[in-house]
Amino acid sequence: MTPLAGRGGVFPTLRTMRRSRRLVCDLVSTPKSTTPPILHIHGIWTPVVLAAASAAMRSQLPFIISPHGMLMGPAMRKSGFRKRAALALMVRRMLERARVVQCASPEEAAAVHQVAPGAVTRTIPFGVDIPSVPLDAGHERSLTAGFLGRLVAIKNLEVLVAAWAAVRPPGWRLRIAGPDGDGTAARLRVLIEQSGLQGVVSLEPPMSAAEARGFLASLAVFIQPSRSENFGVAIAEALATSTPVITTSGTPWHAVEGHGCGWCVSPSVAGLMAAIQEATVTPRPVLAAMGRRGAEWIAAEYSWSAIGFRFLHELYGLS
User: Which residues contact 79 (CB under 8 A, 6 or more apart)?
Assistant: First the structure.
């Protein structure tokens, strides 16, 4: 593995782009085995990605792109002028020349086709690590709801805190954990204090993978209030730990209601209030049954053993 990320600045970026192009050239010149090389590019807008895609197109090396939500509406609006310019100059051609653009949801596929109508897409979600020992959502879980992820505006966390303040479910706590991305943490602290939720709503630092699994498994309910998600891997990870979920119509997880393992509501104060009110009065055995149904669904359809075959077959053309 060759790390390419470097410090910011013009010259470090140029060096990183040269290394990216050199790696593609090395891949092209590698003696061919029975399986021809394929480049899999993750992301869209960074110079290292654009340099790799440019080198692949020049050398006619087949490549696959996973946009990771970077073409969805909210992401496109950030630095919109620069992205529109990059789209016209390079990115649209990159998407349409890719062998396949792997989309994590139908919503992401629609976003790709909106900016690159000629792109070939395959909708394949990301896989989830399934706990080796089933984690039951039983009565021993505390009356705690939680969020895990980046603290950024698109996650809609201020609306979540406002909804929690309006409901104030007796005996329940709300834990919000993850790295601060755009100053959201400071705004949340002010809102928590103004709402008198100190000791009820807590902000917690980023967690390791093992800590995150323990955190999700400790919750009675996981809440993902995002206005937009290309996939929402934390939802799948929570369900894998037998934790029922409250999410919104801004995520591609409407099916939680059909599978009987959660609530899907509008990403508004009123929508989240209704779900919080219902979830926090739901008897613990019912929450436990919801959690088990969610874990069974994720294990059957979203485990890496199931998703990995689709990656190999539909993206890489391997049997």
Answer: none
Task: Tell whether 310 and 289 lie within a shared domain.
Answer: no
Q: Binning pLDDT at 50, 70 and 90, where does residue 123 land? A: very high
CATH of the domain at 176: 3.40.50.2000
Q: Which two tokens stand for residue 34?
A: 């029975």
Task: Return d(Cα 26, Cα 148) in angstroms, integer.
Answer: 39
* Euclidean distance between CA atoms 83 and 175, whole angstroms: 35
Contact 71, 111 (CB under 8 A): yes
The model's confidence at residue 32, banded by pLDDT at 50, 70 and 90, is low
Question: pLDDT by residue (tens digit) across 213-230?
Answer: 999 999 999 999 999 999
Q: Which of 174-183, 285-294, 305-314 has the lowest mean pLDDT?
A: 305-314
Same domain? 161 vs 119: no
Q: Tell me how far CA of residue 154 lies from CA of 73, 75, 231, 232, in angstroms.
A: 11, 9, 13, 12
pTM confidence score: 0.84
Task: Kindly state whether residue 19 falls inside one of the protein's structural domains.
Answer: yes
Q: Whole-angstrom Cα distance, residue 245 to residue 149?
A: 14
Q: Would 188 be classed as within a structural domain?
A: yes
* Partner residues linked to 173 by β-bridges: 144
Is 121 strand, coil or helix? strand
CA distance 131 to 108: 28
Number of structural domains found in the chain: 2
Contact between residue 55 and residue 80 where contact means Cβ atoms under 8 Å apart: no
In terms of domains, do 111 and 186 share one? no
**Alpha-carbon span 67 to 77, nearest angstrom:** 15
Domain contains 60: yes
- The Cα–Cα gap between 17 and 13 comes to 6
313: CB partners within 8 A, 6+ apart: 319
Residue type, 293: R
4 in a domain, yes or no?
no
